[in-house]
Specification:
Blueprint lengths: L49 H11 L8 E3 L2 H5 L2 E5 L10 H10 L3 H6 L1 E4 L3 H13 L3 E5 L5 H9 L3 E4 L4 H15 L2 E2 L6 H17 L5 E5 L4 H13 L4 E7 L4 H8 L22 H7 L5 E5 L1 H15 L5 H11 L10 E5 L7 H14 L3 E9 L4 H11 L3 E8 L9 E9 L3 H14 L3 E4 L18 E3 L3
Parallel strand pairs: 2-10, 3-4, 3-6, 4-5, 7-8, 7-10, 8-9
Antiparallel strand pairs: 1-2, 11-13, 11-14, 12-13, 14-15
Helix pairs in contact: 1-8, 3-5, 3-8, 5-6, 8-9, 9-11, 12-13, 12-14
Bound molecules: pyridoxal-5'-phosphate (PLP).
Keywords: Lyase, Pyridoxal phosphate
GO molecular function, one term: ATP binding
Family: Belongs to the serine/threonine dehydratase family.
Length: about 475
Amino acid sequence: MADTATRYTTSATNGKIPDLPPKHQNGASVDNSTEEDPWCNASNPHQLHFEDITSAAFKVKNGILVTPCMKSHLSELTGMEIFLKKDFLQYTGSFKERGASYALLMLPEEQKRKGVISASLGNHALALCYHGKRLNIPVTVVMPIVAPIMKIQSCQQLGANVVVQGHDMGEAKQIAMRLSKERGLVYINGYDHPHIMAGQGTLGLEVVEQVANIDAIIVPVGGGGLIAGVALAIKTLHPNVKVIGVESERCASFTAAIKAGKPVPVPIQSTLADGLAVPMVGYNAFITAAPLIDKLVVVKEEWIAMAILRLVELEKCVVEGAGASGLAAILAGHLDEFKGKRVVIPLCGGNIDTTILGRCLERGLAVDGRLLKFTVTVSDRPGGIAELTKLLSSMGVSIKDIIHERAWITSDIFSVQVKVVCETRDVKHGKQLMKALSENYTNVHFDENVFYGEIPSPLNENGNGVSAGKH
Ligand SMILES: Cc1ncc(COP(=O)(O)O)c(C=O)c1O
């Protein structure tokens, strides 16, 4: 625990964010324990003020893009008037630059020379490295060994000191806190440092200038810094705008915090929305955001994949899972009360690996009922498989993969089992295919788990595999 002397308090600073927490004799702004961050203190959380955000907006305007917030083609599909705030267009591909550049600009001159440190898997590290280089402030990032190689290399190319250590974010953070103490570097928490939250709030200020009469904004929640800043900016200027938080089902740490009345650690599972995989929300973020959030929803993986697909197909936007989760919440039907209303969705990050993007697109197609897998038993006589492929081609179904198995089939020596992965136009087309197969074959089984074993198919509301035909 930090002792009282090393904490700052809101009252002692008149509600303003102090330049640095009190220093040790050697000038290092560090806590007296390796694990504790003096900026983010459980027993003395800092509630952000609107003026912090306006001050951030003024300071960051030279280094940060005012990204477009445009009416979307998705309006028809969703029944809402959707506006997309395209913050993935920032230089390093995410909104994280807003907070990172403000946090760096707010350092005292002496600290600017010494530098900063942080632990991050991706977007925050990239943002810090880029703006550190731009502002000539040394940056050290500790990235766990599970961090994507591409992101590690990008941080190195930006001239940062990149330490690849620790099995996960928890370990990386402990290493970073220790280095912060040893080297006199300020630790910058990527979601809970007050300057980070203030910087993220500038996205909210821009949105209200760009779109009139907003009814709601849907904000992805990881550690809570983005929603804290954005909710405060928007609710201060337009109290009637509803602020909706979205979490991944696999890491619903804000939902857990609301239930417990304080940030609590939750177990996390891997998710497409890796930017949201923070096991415990920040103390400052929680105290700032909790009173301002009107509704919190959690989304399943398949809707995130579907949202990524929709954004590529309809908007020509490549967005990562975390950035697509706002749209995912709408597609999943969690926000139907906003039908006919004007809704803003920040597309807050675009850093998705090409291989993951490919898998998301396939997964989205599967959820959409446009990529189907089925097994059918056909006659082993000449022309048996040809008949099947003729049926598929007559329906405009495109075969992606086909294999047939003879040796292990138990029922009929003159039969062969054929496994097909195919592409259909939509759910309706998929259902027509099922019907045609069941009319022509006695043993057909559709499997919704085309690639990943966990996608409930819209073809079948209860999410189980679908068997058709006369068994
Ligand atoms: C793309 C993207 N969206 C949303 C978030 C969530 O932001 P926060 O951790 O401030 O809640 C993150 C966090 O890394 C992110 O990278």
